[in-house]
Every structure is written in structure tokens, then in C-alpha cells.
């Protein structure tokens, strides 16, 4: 057979070593976020506190993650969370369930991060005076005693005998009015 460049085939060299494959299983416990329609995801933090450490990501309901251990008070769990420094994050323990039991030691909290801004300690008094409202002292009210209480007194009716009884006056004026109405009626006929 003659050698022809069009009909020749090249065979690539096959590797002689083996290709490494990942066959290991994660060691330790596995935790998953509870399946809850009201809470489909949960925030994970850089440390075991929602107000001392920043948020670093989210985990979804049903997502299983390896757990490294508990916080000192056992209210937070440190989990494997790729993509953040150290590939660890903390999740609030009541929100997750342990899917696979394994060793979960107590882990002390990482140091709290430094603030992004530095608070001003030395404030210029002149600048501070420009933005504060001065407090003007006022005179306090004084106590004034109330006027003396005057209690009304009534005279006894039996002492004054020269008065005409009020019922007699009403009866007399009523009689005079009725007599006048009778005269008017008789005159109109």
C-alpha cells in the first residue's frame, strides 16, 4: 500500500495517567432550610448575629449545605457557603433542620468587622454651635394662692314675717286674669 496524504489518519496519543475524580462525601452534618411558602429564602451572615455582622448571601428553601458547627449559645450554625471569604457563613439555627447528623462542635464567633466609616470624635465647638439651638432660660411660673372660698348663706323665712306669700300673689294674679278674660268675652257678644 502506498502512502497517500489524503487517506492517512492520525491517532492521538492516549493519556497514560488517570484523571482524578471527586468521589468523597462531605463530612459532618448537613442542614437544609425548612420548606415554607412564607419564607422561601433566608439571609446568611458573616458571623453569628444579624446586627453585628454584614449579610453575605441567601439560601433557598430545601437547599442542603454542609454544617461546620454551632455558635457558643447554639442559636447560629456555621455552614459552607462558597463565594465569600473563607467559604463560610452563619444561618440562624431555628430556620434550618439537620438532614444528616454528624459532628457539630462549638465554634467561637469571628471578630466583628470594622465600621465602614469612622465616627468623628473631635468636633469643632464653633461648628457645633452653628447647628445647635440655644436653650434660653425662662422664668419658672410662681404659685398664686386661690381667692378665699365664699359660701353663700340664706336667711331664714320665719324671721321675716312682713312678706306676702308667693302662692297668694300667683293665685291673685290668676284670678284677675280670669276675671278680665270673662269680661272681654261678655263684652264681645
Topology:
Blueprint: E1 29-33, E2 41-45, E3 55-60, E4 64-70, E5 76-80, E6 88-92, E7 96-100, H1 125-131, H2 166-187
Antiparallel strand pairs: 1-4, 1-7, 2-3, 4-5, 5-6
Q: Based on DSSP secondary structure assignment, what is the total number of beta strands? A: 7
* Spatial ordering of strands, largest sheet: 6-5-4-1-7
**Structural class determined from secondary elements:** alpha+beta
CATH superfamily of one domain, called what? SH3 Domains
Largest sheet: 5 strands, antiparallel
Q: Specify the overall morphology.
A: elongated
CA radius of gyration: 50 Å
CATH architecture of one domain: Roll
User: What name does CATH use for the topology of one domain?
Assistant: SH3 type barrels
User: What are the low-pLDDT stretches, counting only 5+ consecutive residues below 50?
Assistant: none
Helix content: 10-25%
Beta-strand content: 15-25%
Tell me the number of helical segments per DSSP (H or I, 4 or more residues long): 2
CATH class of one domain: Mainly Beta
| SSE string | EEEEEEEHH
**Overall pLDDT score:** 80
Distance between the termini: 167 Å
Amino acid at each position: 500500500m502506498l502512502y497517500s496524504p489524503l487517506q492517512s489518519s492520525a491517532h492521538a496519543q492516549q493519556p497514560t495517567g488517570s484523571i482524578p475524580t471527586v468521589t468523597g462525601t462531605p463530612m459532618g452534618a448537613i442542614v437544609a432550610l425548612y420548606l415554607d411558602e412564607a419564607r422561601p429564602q433566608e439571609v446568611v451572615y458573616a458571623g453569628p448575629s444579624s446586627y453585628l455582622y454584614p449579610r453575605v448571601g441567601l439560601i433557598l428553601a430545601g437547599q442542603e449545605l454542609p454544617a461546620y458547627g454551632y455558635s457558643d449559645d447554639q442559636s447560629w450554625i456555621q455552614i459552607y457557603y462558597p463565594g465569600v471569604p473563607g467559604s463560610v457563613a452563619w444561618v440562624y439555627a431555628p430556620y434550618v433542620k439537620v438532614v444528616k447528623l454528624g459532628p457539630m462542635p462549638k465554634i467561637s464567633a469571628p471578630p466583628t468587622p470594622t465600621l465602614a466609616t469612622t465616627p468623628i470624635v473631635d468636633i469643632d465647638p464653633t461648628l457645633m454651635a452653628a447647628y445647635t439651638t440655644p436653650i434660653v432660660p425662662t422664668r419658672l411660673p410662681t404659685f398664686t394662692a386661690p381667692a378665699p372660698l365664699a359660701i353663700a348663706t340664706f336667711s331664714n323665712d320665719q324671721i321675716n314675717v312682713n312678706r306676702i306669700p308667693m302662692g297668694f300673689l300667683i293665685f291673685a294674679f290668676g284670678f284677675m286674669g280670669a276675671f278680665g278674660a270673662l269680661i272681654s268675652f261678655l263684652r264681645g257678644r
